[in-house]
Amino acid sequence: MKNIFRNLILRILSKWRIRKGEKFSHNTRIVLRKIEKKEGLFIDEIRGNSLPKLDQARFRQQAKGDSLYLVAFIEKMPVGYIYINFSGTCKYHTSPVLQDLFVKSKLREQNIGTQIIQEAERILKSLNYKKLSLDVEVRNGWIQKLYEKQGFIKKGGHHEQSWIEEDSGKRVEIKVVYLEKNI
Length: 183
Prior knowledge:
31% of the residues lie in helices and 32% in strands. By secondary structure, the protein is of the alpha+beta class. Strand 2 and strand 3 (77-85) form a beta hairpin. The longest helix has 15 residues, at 112-126. It starts with a helix and ends with a strand.
């Protein structure tokens, strides 16, 4: 029954899906807002798949005030999201950590990711935070360059991170670079 309900909601949300090749103007402004657990299907819609255990853990963290799940909308259509953890997951995280930024694949390279980061920074400033940090996988140099264009600066060298994925139960080990930005 749960899957039937989920599929019905995703079909309803699909009316907002972007037609192939549709573009928005670089001047199109997003609206970024905090979402609650009951709106979690927006995340699935944007990502194109479901990671229920990961999302449930993140919503529990948000309910405790330890993080924020923010979704970007254009004309009521979910187009991207950002997940920020206030305490970080590693001892070197001394500021809120941008743990996840995702833009619908058909809408990438349209300035949406940049707007999401800028709006998230504005929200963090209003909460009296002075910095935002993140870890980028070494193999994703192009993403690191994107963040550096946004003012993030590499701090230190490469280091290892590992964790057990919430949904698959698999152990993941990656090399990352730590970046930080004054906001």
